[in-house]
Amino acid sequence: MDFRGAHIISVKQFERADVDRIFQVADSMEPYAHRQKMSKALDGAILG
Question: Domain spans of the chain?
Fold first, then answer.
């Protein structure tokens, strides 16, 4: 399932493979959350 632009209405719209993919992506982002890796996604952005 392509999640970009998708609206989540209910957990029933997901299959097991979709949930597994969500957790795989979350696991890959964990080093960024713990500041072990840096992302340049917001470089140059003004946040405020």
Answer: 1-37
